[in-house]
Design a protein that fits this description.
The chain has helices at 13-16, 30-42, 57-70, 93-99, 103-108, 121-138, 150-161, and strands at residues 2-8, 48-53, 74-76, 143-148, 178-184, 187-195. By secondary structure, the chain is of the alpha/beta class. The protein starts with a strand and ends in a 7-residue tail after the last strand.
Length: 202
């Protein structure tokens, strides 16, 4: 059995403002930095064969906290860079609703509409499934961490569990949440979802 830890980055100011970040290279807040440290401390006894990270700063800094704690090099990987939200990046949910009245229907099923100039979610989902299977098969029964973003993690979960895009928003993912997939006999199983218990630590 192999385990893949899908971990979301710490808090950014755009998270607080409910702005779509996508590929925009936003910074962690002080709260986000502290979240990253608490996350890393909670994983101090977990051995990782590899730690992959999105190259975007909010994820890479979060990953570096983990890497330092468990003495494992962090590998930047474009496969785990956040999906592009195209014309929506930098806009708040309120602003998008005003400009795109169909947004609420998109929340119900992300496959119904295409974000202008954004990535095609189904394509990203299929790409991620291939990558997750490759990582799981090559990990030799060890743990792998992937520090990334809500969009990528949601699509990874859908891909691994063979769920349709209509389930995209059913996965609530807090900042620095830990989500664990087990790979066994050619199948993925969800072992942990949105674990942020480390944020309760003092």
């Amino acid at each position: 059995m192999s385990y893949i830890y899908l971990i979301r980055h710490g808090q950014t100011s755009w998270n607080l403002e409910e702005r779509f970040q996508g590929t925009t290279n936003t910074e962690l807040t002080e709260v986000g930095i502290n979240q990253g440290k608490l996350l890393a401390k909670s994983l101090s006894k977990t051995k990782f064969e590899n730690i992959y990270s999105s190259p975007l700063k909010r994820a890479k800094i979060t990953a570096d906290f983990i890497g330092s704690e468990v003495n494992c090099e962090v590998i930047e990987d474009l496969d785990f860079k956040e999906i592009s939200f195209g014309d929506w990046e930098g806009l708040s949910t309120k602003e998008i609703r005003e400009k795109y009245p169909w947004m609420d229907k998109w929340f119900d099923d992300t496959g119904l509409f295409q974000i202008p100039n954004g990535d095609v979610f189904e394509d990203e989902k299929n790409r991620l499934k291939e990558r997750l299977i490759k990582i799981a098969k090559e990990s030799n029964g060890q743990n792998t961490a992937i520090v990334s973003h809500a969009g990528i993690i949601r699509l990874s979960l859908l891909a691994a569990l063979d769920l349709p895009l209509s389930y995209y928003w059913r996965f609530v993912l807090g900042n620095t949440s830990i989500n664990i997939l087990e790979y066994h006999n050619g199948m993925f199983f969800l072992k942990s979802l949105n674990d942020t218990s480390h944020l309760l630590s003092k």
